Amino acid sequence: MLDLKVGGVPEHFNYPWYITLKNKEYTKQKINLRWTDFSGGTGAMCKALRESEIDIAIVLTEGIIKDIIDGNPSKILQTFVQSPLVWGIHVGAKSKFKTIQDLEHATVAISRFGSGSHLMAIVNAYNNGWDIDKLKFKVVKNLQGGIDALTNGDADYFMWEHFTTKPYVDEGIFRRVGDCPTPWPCFVIAVRDEVLANNPEQIKTVLNIINSCTENFKEIPDIDKTLSIRYEQQLNDIQEWLSITEWNDGKPITKNLLTRIQNKMVGFNVISEKINSDRLIKNL
């Protein structure tokens, strides 16, 4: 039995992993797969990959590309979610800020440097023609940290996945002033180089199992109701999310796609220069 550790955010995107683990589909293939929630998001997962605390990460595309360029000994195997991630731009309920344009000189809460909330704040600034070098950041670790920072006035706005934060908007904790979709597929599956070198067949098996689940995920009876209850979201919000979300079709990630994403990231000043995309991906 091979032990493997996988990490991801505790959000509805990753419910297929819960299903396949609950059904012991990996155990049947002699793989002891264990899941860890990372409420701190992509930055925390990149750190865990570097420190061998996890073997596989379901991670934001922009975050892992930047971290591999910066020395993370891992490779991207495939996209997990092909559709963009819609980042809500939130202020506190009592904030003086009313529009995205009001936030140009405001302090943005981020989970950590190199995280999706950090990199997408840069993308949003670029989209609005702001001076990226003048962005001010407050590290808050996770979603709860973002709630606390905006409520206490330690930061002015916070970017997090639109539907995950929708309940806090409904409760009047946050006020959303706009959205910023990623200009690329949002989640990829990344694996440590050492694990890929030693266990390529088992990793292939893991991918086959999860891809088989996501292929028909939307057709699972009452999946909208299940997700609504599990993630404490309104049924109509989950239905909207399902309608705009597309998982991977099982195809490996291509060098051309990674090159196009890197070109955009350079343009957004998210990375300073691109590398050969062969250094980012591994096709099993």
TrEMBL record:
InterPro entries: Ca3427-like_PBP2. It is found in: Periplasm. It comes from the Bacteria. One of its GO terms (cellular component) is periplasmic space. Gene3D superfamilies: Periplasmic binding protein-like II. The keyword Signal applies. Keywords: Signal. The keyword Transport does not apply. Residues 87-179 form the Ca3427-like PBP domain. PANTHER family: ALIPHATIC SULFONATES-BINDING PROTEIN-RELATED, TAURINE-BINDING PERIPLASMIC PROTEIN. Belongs to the bacterial solute-binding protein SsuA/TauA family. This is ABC-type nitrate/sulfonate/bicarbonate transport system substrate-binding protein. It comes from Tenacibaculum skagerrakense.
